[in-house]
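As the next step, I selected for study a record pairing a protein sequence with its backbone structure tokens, which the following lines show:
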Amino acid sequence: MTNDARELLPIRLFTQRTVDEKRVEGGPRDESPAWVLAGEALEERAKSLRDGLTDESFLERHNPDLPYTFEVVLDNDDTAKSKRGAVVDMLSPSGSGSSYVVGMRGATGLILRLPTRESVELVASRMNEPDRYGAPITCVLRIGPFRPEVDAVEEGIFKVKLLRDRAEDGDNAGAFSTYLDTLGIEHKLLSYSKGMVIYKAAMKPDEVRAVVDGSLGESIFSIKPMPKLSAVLDGIAECDVPPVRQPVGGGQPPLLGILDSGVKEIGHLAPWLGDSMSPYPLSDMDRSHGTFVAGIAVYGDELEGREWVGGLPPQVFSACVIPDPRAMTCNEDELVDNIREAIAKRSEDVKVWNLSVSIDSPVSSDDFSDFAMALDEIQDEYGVLICKSAGNCMGFARGKGKSPLSAGADSVRALTVGSVAQAKGEWDEADEGEASPFTRCGPGPQFIIKPEVCHYGGNAGVCPDGSVCQSGVRSFDLDGTSFSTPRVSALASNLALSLDGKFDPLLVKALIVHSASFPGDLVVPRDEKVKEMGFGVPSDVRRMLIDEPYEATLVLNGELPKGEIIDIIDFPMPESLVEDGYFRGQIILTLVCSPVLDPLQGGEYCQSDIDVKLGTYDDICTRDTTKPTILNPIGRTNPSNLLLSKPYSKRNLKKPEESFALRERMLIEYGGKYYPVKKYAIDFADLTPANRKLVAAGRKWFMYLRGTYRDAAERRALRERKTLSQEFCVLVTIRDPRREAFVYNDVASFLDLHGFWHQTVPISNTVRASLRGIVA
């Protein structure tokens, strides 16, 4: 059954009802958890921690006016929020409720700053009461002096990051600047992200050592070489040039900002170029890379002869953020300033930005990069979405594996894009539909899924003579590889134009991720696919916005305050999908949230998360709200979450014979992880025989959302008297794989019957006409 191009069935917005809004309930706590150490083991751990706090060699300081700074290393299995509060309280001289933990290093290192010798001794004395503090003592492996991470092999430009003092005590940024002045070190305070104090300083190795060993050495978090940039790729100048396109009158085109090396006003691009900006004179620019990127954004489908993106060509705003590397070097801080300036200038109307520029340093598995955190703050400040390339590597040419993502690709707010091969040449390494050999791979820090999506960006391999050969994608000025990001940026700019109303970066990001599937028919292990390709290649604009009669896509977006739950107890599963007493069908669910971010919390940079469940239950029930732990009067009996892998046949999940298994099925266990993007794709046919009862006719359906917050976020909100909340967007597609049931109409009728507000997503007239194939 095919939907006629002129009979559009747009995806549908809906909201929860008042009855679906509930409060988080507490529960009884186990006073003596089984994991707590006891007896001699607890005594030994307590003594070790006490010695770490009171060892005289550890307590020597270069400056008696600075706090005592310790690193408290947690057991990797004991980092959960439920355990963190007790640890922080134990380490606080002021007792429960206050915090002297000023940040984290990695995922397990708490940074503790105690103001006086007396406060150190007070905290150490608590280790003499292991029975009272047994749980937090068990969680801590060791305590020792904090040592800054220093990497200074040769003279150069360094990034000096400072520790922060407690919020109540202010910070020492001004004193550190004065200190560098006295040493005659040229320096500059940088603007990366609120809460971070970072200086750029030109130093020799002996000057670095003097700073670390000097009177303010205990205020330093790290000193590392300032990262530099890499962007321009060599290529072969040949392609079949399409006719010049002209903007069609009568409607606003999509707008796309390109943060790159500048764009040349060549004949094909001149009609599509808006204004431009550059902090560099033309003599210091090499605009080849930016011109190539702009060419793909505007002409990508035509150059390849395939409709990968669809929609309308974007008008391009060019911001040159990097100079010609042959003329001058560009450091990370300069790039951040250039990006901030460009986006600030045009953020009112340009909401989507392409960034195919990479830093020449990989992301860490433990900490988020400074560049990523700066990009996150810029996106939050100006309400924009950056599409960021995953980065390239040449390991395949040396017989080595792929490198981790480039710094910046770990931006939580950005949409990170990998590259997939669109064709295979004689010596190319990747088969068609596999990740390109040169694309860097995830995951991001703390295993968050990065890249989220991929697109066609070329192939490469090693020729018999040892040289690198490539099957690039086509554009203007040069032929090249790993130019997948502008395709996704073009998609995002079309979505920004399509959706009438205020720009919603979460909705745009969710639509792109939700539509993605894995290309080709290659059986690649699921974990490997996600690591290299995210959730796959997005569909075209029309497929994102328009349903077919046999499917229905629902959009639920909003803000979820701390302490509240959304529990939709009448989720719309149409009866037309019931056959022989059971529901059949497929469900694809995507959740994108905007977590609370804290640059000082190391691997716990993402300070919040949203848990989502979708499943069935027998019936609603009334609950006894006179009990202290019960706040919600209505509950569900015998609920089952279908987004877990347990109910499904492992044998069926491994079968690659049909399209859904190869391209879409997604069952990742996100338990305990703070993932800003989650996606599930399930088929009821994969349930084990014993679990088919979970989708029996007569069972009711629910969808459940609950926010969680880390201890540091909750303490900060309490201190600042703020209410924590998270913006979110959930997309759910219900589909009949046989394409027989009229799911689209049935879901709309269900929503009406059960009192939900709903409407089709508002699509601008310009885009609606293009989706119908009408030229305005």
